[in-house]
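Q: What does the assembly look like in three dimensions?
Context provided by user:
Components: two
Sequences:
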Amino acid sequence: MYRTAAKRLLGGGGAFTATRLLRFPKLRSTIIPSSYTSGLCTSSVGGNAESPMGGNQSVNPNQSDHTASSSSSTSTGEGPRRDESRKPRAEFQEEQARVLSASLRHVPRLGWTEEAMMAGSRDVGVSPSIVGSFSRKEAALVEFFMDECLQLLMDKIDSGLDLQNLIPSARIAKLIRIRLEMQVPYMSKWPQALSIQAHPLNVATSFKQRAMLVDEIWHAVGDGASDLDWYVKRTILGGVYSTTEIYMLTDDSLEHRDTWAFLDDRVKDAFDLKKSIQEARYFAQDIGAGVGKSVQGLMNGVMQTMSRRSGGTTF
Amino acid sequence: MALRSVSRRLGSRILNHRSFVASLHSHATSFGFQEVKEEDKSKLVGNVFTNVASSYDIMNDVMSGGLHRLWKERLVGKLSPFAGMKHLDVAGGTGDVAFRIYDSIYSVKRRALQKVDEASLEETQIYVCDINPNMLNVGKQRAAERGLRDNKSLVWVEGNAEALSFDDNSMDGYTIAFGIRNVTHIEKALAEAYRVLKRGGRFLCLELSHVDIPIFKNLYDLYSFQVIPNLGELIAGDRESYQYLVESVRRFPPQEKFASMIADAGFEKVEYENLVGGVVAIHSGIKL
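A: Here is the predicted structure of the complete assembly.
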């Protein structure tokens, strides 16, 4: 069935030029056939190095910058469209990133909404209809912001943050503080962002972003000598981060002093937790050893009695 | 069974027209399963729609079992209209899509939920363009029924999708619902759409498309070729027009081919979404 369709395509149509034939295989490979159920599955045409996921916003802005630079080096400015080696995906991602970045300026006033994004698009000089093509519109803006903050944090860490002289708990506190301070300008609208992230459609992406953030922080802290396993570490840090974030929503002390105090307490609790788990483990081992010894002694006693009874034969 | 009879009919038509085609000096194009001269196609299409104009809406309801409303809702949902937008609906004679866009922008609920600037609301312009004046008249009549006769936001324009009378970079949105298969040169219509849209503007096309699911495809073909022309005769008194309609759907390029044509016109982020297993597809693109 598909072969006949393909034959029909390639055989029919007098307007089928050689250039199109060349382009077709590439397009075919990146077109994802839409689902056959009457569903919301879309497929896209074009793009090459980009992963063919319909407008996935959790792509790191860094990545899109790389493709943007590569596309500008291969295409000669605004040449005729057919000369471009089909990098439409990269251009759209770039444009989207530009619009979202401009929209952030309007967020404190308009919230994480389509209005903010439309205002942002007007700033960039693009028609506001482009906002209609962002998947999960407001979530796109929030996710873009989260990615940007992560990128900023990584840059700050790379450009030499003085972490060596601090104990692990202080390092964690400092990194979380740096990250949360990036949210301060948007604090009035942050509850809305949190609710958008908690929306069932968006939970998967926001969870992934937070996981990346926590991972990054642990990596920067240097994964100190700890015998708690990987998941537990990240879960605990995720918990500390989230609770501090939520505390910050209602904190109106000067320069969020109360939040930082709260943060320090939570980190201390976490490390205390670690210590107490370790102590509990040692305690259990000791008990086990003690019990084991007594059981062993008991068993030995039993064995000796039995062997004496049965007249000296040993097993 | 229906397919075999169709192919036999097709075969006989091709045989009949081979000599006819040989004598043509201009390019030939398709009118359903017939081959006709290009100049004739628009006239023939015009005749079809003059005939069906008055019962167009009823026939839509009957043929699609009311589903066409859902499809148009989905199209407008995807468009996400906003206050102050300049929108062009091509081949939208009776105004189905245009009215939905209008309602979406002016709905009281939406205005309450979102901070809509009332001034920008005034700037909204929805242009309805159709090549057939009869269809436009039906649309204007429906507008009057809704109390929108003198509304400045809705503008009814007679025009050809291949040669629009609008300025470059003037539209935020362009929709064409069930119209592009009637256009003689699809590439020209796409090029015009590209010209007329602003940077960031969206192109959305709702069209009957190809079904590939094995058994469903046979059922669909049976329905198309056996049921629909009879319905056309029964309800609209016009079997030929509906025969044309069903045949033109089969001649239209399949989803991916059409998507690549849209991309060739210059649009970015070209995607398509199949509804009802491919009976209908919504193609979208952005001008950047």
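Follow-up: Residues 257-309 of chain A form the longest helix (53 residues).
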